[in-house]
Amino acid sequence: MAKSNPRALAVSILEKVAVQGSYSNLTLDATLRHADLSVRDAHLLTTIVYGVIQRRLTLDYDLQPFVGKRRLDPWVRVLLQTAVYQMVYLDKVPTRAIFYETTEIAKQKGHAGIAKFVTAILRRIQREGLPSLDAIQSPLERLSIASSTPMWLVEKLVTQLGQVKAERILAVINQPANASLRVNTTKTTASALQAQLQDRFPELAPSALTPDGLVAPGGHLAGTPEFAAGLYTLQDESSMLVAPSLAVAPEMHVLDACAAPGGKTTHIAQLLDPDVGGKVTALDLHPHKVRLIAENAARLGLADRVDAYAMDARQAPDQFAPQSFDRVLVDAPCSGLGLIRRKPEIKYEKQPADLVNLPKIQLAILEAVAGLVKAGGRLTYSTCTIVREENQAVIDAFLVAHPEFTQIQTPTAKGLTKAHGALALQLYPDDYGTDGFYIAALQRRA
Predict the structure, then answer these.
(1) Quick one: which H or E segment has residue 441?
(2) Residues near 147 by Cβ (< 8 Å), separated by ≥ 6?
(3) Looking at domain 239-444, what is its CATH homologous superfamily?
(4) Residue-wise pLDDT tens for the chain (446 aa)?
C-alpha cells in the first residue's frame, strides 16, 4: 500500500529530510522511480513534499497551539505538517480525504493511540481554526513566519535591500519555479525547437532574458527524445546569462574553474569553434562530477571542444601557464540562497557563519586563477546567491588586491530593465521569476 499511497510516501520522504538531512530532490526522484503512482498521484506527492518544506515554519506556527509542549516523534510532526499543508494550501483536496489518509498513516506507522491523537488535533483545527499571524507583534518575526524564512535571513535581506524589496522577494520564494531549457544552438534554433516541442509542451515560450532559453510553467522537459538527442539541456534562465557575459569569440581558450555539472561549460562550448582552436577547459574538485561534465558535453555533441579535469581550482596555477586563457569563469561555490524556490531546505540549512566562511573560499579561488587571464582578457565571477557578502563584497576585496583588473558592465544579450543600476548583474527571484543570481565581469588591463 505504501508504494501506491502518495501521502504515506510524502511522510517517508519528509522524515528522511528532517532526520537524516537527505536532499529532498534526490529522495523524491528515487521514490518516484520505485513507486507505483499515477501521474496525478505523483504530482500530489511532489506538491506535498516541496510544499511542506517551503512552509515548514508557518506550519509549525499553525500547529503550536494544538500540540503545545508535547514532544513529538519526527514522523508524527511531519504527518501533522502534511495534513495542515493540504488543508490550507490544496483547496481541491477534500477535508475528509485528508483526515482519513492521515489517520490511516498514523495507524500504520504508529498505533491506535497515536492515530487518535492525530485525529483529535485535526478536529480541533477544523473547529477552532488556525492562529492568526496578526498575533505576532514584531513585523520582522511576522514576515519570517509568513514566508517560512529563518529570522536571521529576513533581517539580512531587510538590512541590505530594504523592507519593501525583502518583502517582494519573500513573497515569491515559495511559489513554483518555472521549467526552463537552453537550446543547443549548434544543432537547432529556439524557434525550431519550440515548434518541435509544441504538441507536448503547449505553454513553452521564449525567455524574456535570453535568446537561448525557452520557459514553461512546468513539465518533465528531460523526458523527451529531443533532450536525449542533445537538442537542449535544462538550465535556469538566470544561469544562461553567464556564458554570454564572457563575450567569447569562436577561437578563444576559456577556463571554467568550478564547472560541474557542466551547464555553463556546455553553453560556453556552443559559442566556440574547434576548427579555429576554440576550447573550454572545465575543472571540478570531484571526479564523479567531472564525469557529469563529460557526459553532458557528449550528449550535446560538444565533446570536441570540452576538456574536463578533476582539480581544485586553487591548484590551477600549478597546471596551466600564466596568462594562458582568454576568458576565465569562476562560478563559485556559494550559499545557494538564490535557489530557495528549487531547493527550499537551503533556507533552513544555511547559517550566518556560512556568509563568513564562503567568501574566504570564493576570494581564494579568484586569487588563484587571476594570473591565468591574458592581458586584455576577462575574468567573470558568478554565484547563485543574493547576499552582498558573497557577491560585490568579494569583488571589491579582489579589486583592492589586484589593480591590474577593473570591473566593467556585465553584458547581456537582451536589455534587462531590472538590473539594479550596478556594474554587476544582480537578479533577485522577484525580478523575472528566475533563480537569484549575480554576475560580475572584470577586465585585465592590456
Answers:
(1) strand 437-444
(2) 58, 154, 170, 171, 173, 174
(3) Vaccinia Virus protein VP39 (3.40.50.150)
(4) 467 899 999 999 999 999 888 888 889 989 998 888 998 999 999 999 999 999 999 999 999 999 988 899 999 999 999 999 999 999 888 999 999 999 999 999 988 999 999 999 999 999 999 999 999 999 999 999 999 999 999 999 999 999 999 999 999 999 888 899 999 999 999 999 999 999 999 999 999 999 999 999 988 898 899 999 999 999 999 999 999 999 999 999 999 999 999 999 999 999 999 999 999 999 999 999 999 999 999 999 999 999 999 999 999 999 999 999 999 999 999 999 999 998 899 999 999 999 999 999 999 999 999 999 999 999 999 999 999 999 999 999 999 999 999 999 999 988 888 867 689 999 999 999 999 999 999 999 98
Instruction: List helix spans (H) across 110-230.
Output: 112-128, 139-147, 151-161, 163-172, 190-197, 225-228
Among 13, 384, 395, 441, the active-site one is 384
Q: Which fold, 2-131?
A: N-utilizing Substance Protein B Homolog; Chain A (1.10.940)
Which residue matches cell numbers 513585523?
139
Active site residue 334: no
**Inter-residue contact 280 to 305 (CB < 8 Å):** yes
Q: What is the pTM of this model?
A: 0.93
Distance CA 230, CA 188 (A): 10
